[in-house]
Write a structure and sequence with these properties.
alpha/beta; Spore Coat Polysaccharide Biosynthesis Protein SpsA, Chain A; Jelly Rolls; twelve-stranded mixed beta sheet
Length: 484
């Protein structure tokens, strides 16, 4: 008998505790957090690749369903394209309503064609070091779920961790997937120490496996309000190629609740059988910089580094350099994160509190907590390399075959200089081609467009001048990406 598995990857969230590298516009799940970014995969790509590895005799793995934010839709497609993976669907939440409605959207999508696959639901921001052990544990969970039960993944604790919820199982059971007795909240230190000493307690990894119909039945049983409201949003959905958008007003009315509170914690002792499969695969959820240090390769003094870094007479320190040389002397248990527009220094013990900085930036309405200096767009990216009261200089990359929108600005003029590649420029009623070292001028108020007709990336330098240089001074007339 063949089991159809539908991977569901939860790719929402902003990862504020990994600021300044992770920001709302480009959150941690899409980042490469270790090694050479040119040769490594993002956390999201790692999650996709791991679930593809579940395929074996008797298990067929469908294309993944991605549940994420509207603003990250092109990041999702670009990173899947790099893996040569075709998604079953990208479900775009107009607003965040927590994980229970998100999983419900995925279940409704999976049931749409009359099938009832086994959903393997995982966050997009975790790491494992033993992929063979990961696949073996998930395959066991798939077998449990195919029998009608809910399987949840648990991690044997190696320390009294207070940052995770715990799963208590029947310690006397000899079954490799013992029944779950209870879910318990994040404990204080003394309670966590008792859990580790007693045994039978596991960290909740936030991964679970069950049939789509079982999820819907359990949700109808425990939270019929969420089920009904999400069904209404699903009925009002719109489709745009692989993008599926639930009705905006209807989804905003869905009660916000987590998977654990809505369903999982209600299952022990109910008609819904729930079992735990132990996962021993070097798992980490990378919830804060301390966790990144824990999983990173280290030198003989416990130091981990990424980028152009020099570390002298320092111990147990993490240094992550993005755009320049970062050097340290005489540090112990410190985290240093450098980006082009922000540097964060913290003690490892306080790494969870980086969110205090993010909250402060938000309260002051500064944009460093939401976007990087280098901003990714569906056509490529731009990097704001210099600015002043009446000027801004950007480095712009346009992907082969891509184009910006046909647009105009009320308050600024622009000069474009081609650095590499070929530019097709619409400037008013003229269309011209520019090669390397050639330039053009776009007057204020002129309708214009930049496109790359070539097969290599186009890079230009854009110099803006005018009384107002904000990104909202754009009037779009036509747009390939549906933004006009």
């Amino acid at each position: 008998m063949n089991i159809l598995v539908q991977p569901v990857i939860m790719a929402g969230g902003s990862g504020t505790r990994l600021w300044p590298l992770s920001r709302a516009g480009y959150p941690k799940q899409f980042l490469v957090l270790s090694g050479d970014p040119a040769n490594q995969r993002s956390l999201f790509q790692q999650a996709v690749a791991r679930l593809r590895g579940l395929a074996t005799e008797g298990i067929t793995v469908a294309g993944p369903v991605i549940v994420g934010n509207e603003e990250h839709r092109f990041l999702v497609l670009d990173q899947l394209h790099a893996l040569r993976v075709e998604p079953a669907a990208a479900l775009l939440e107009p607003v965040g309503r927590n994980t229970a409605p998100a999983v419900t959207l995925a279940a409704l999508a999976a049931l749409e064609d009359g099938r009832d696959p086994v959903l393997v639901v995982t966050p997009a921001d975790q790491t494992v070091t033993d992929e063979a052990a990961f696949s073996a544990a998930l395959q066991r969970a798939v077998s449990v779920a195919d029998g009608g039960a809910i399987a949840i993944l648990g991690i044997a604790p190696d320390a009294p961790e207070t940052g995770y919820g715990y799963i208590r199982v029947d310690a006397s059971a000899t079954d490799p997937a013992p029944p779950v007795v209870q879910f318990v909240e994040k404990p204080d230190l003394a309670t966590a120490q008792r859990y580790v000493a007693d045994g039978g307690y596991f960290w909740n990894a936030g991964m679970f496996v069950l049939k789509a119909s079982v999820w819907m039945a359990a949700l109808e049983r425990f939270r019929p309000d969420i089920a009904a409201a999400t069904r209404k949003a699903w009925a009002a959905r719109s489709n745009d190629a692989k993008f599926v958008r639930p009705g905006q007003a209807e989804f905003a009315a869905v009660p916000s609740e987590s998977v654990d509170y809505a369903v999982m914690e209600q299952c022990p002792g109910s008609e819904f059988e729930i079992r735990m499969v132990a996962l021993n695969a070097g798992w980490n959820d990378l919830g804060a910089w301390e966790a990144v240090w824990q999983v990173a390769p280290k030198d003989g003094f416990g130091n981990a580094s990424v980028g152009d870094v020099i570390v002298k007479d320092s111990t147990n320190t993490l240094v992550h350099a993005t755009s320049r040389l970062v050097s340290t002397v005489g540090l112990d248990n410190v985290i240093v994160i450098e980006t082009p527009d922000a540097v964060m220094v913290a003690s490892r013990e306080r790494s969870q509190d980086v969110k205090l900085i993010v909250n402060h930036l938000g309260a002051e309405q500064r944009n460093e907590h939401t976007v990087h200096r280098k901003v990714h767009r569906p056509w490529g990216w731009y990097d704001s390399i210099d600015n002043g009261p009446r000027h801004q200089v950007k480095r712009i990359m346009v992907k082969p075959g891509a184009s910006l929108s046909l647009q105009m600005h009320h308050h600024r003029a622009e000069h474009w200089i081609v650095v590499s590649g070929t530019a097709e420029v619409t400037n008013g009623d003229k269309v011209i081609l520019l090669a390397e070292n050639q330039s053009t001028y776009i007057p204020l108020g002129q309708t214009h467009r930049l496109a790359n007709p070539g097969k290599v990336p186009l890079e230009i330098i854009e110099v803006q001048s005018g009384s107002y240089l904000g990104e909202d001074d754009i009037v779009r007339f036509e747009d390939t990406y549906g933004r006009s």
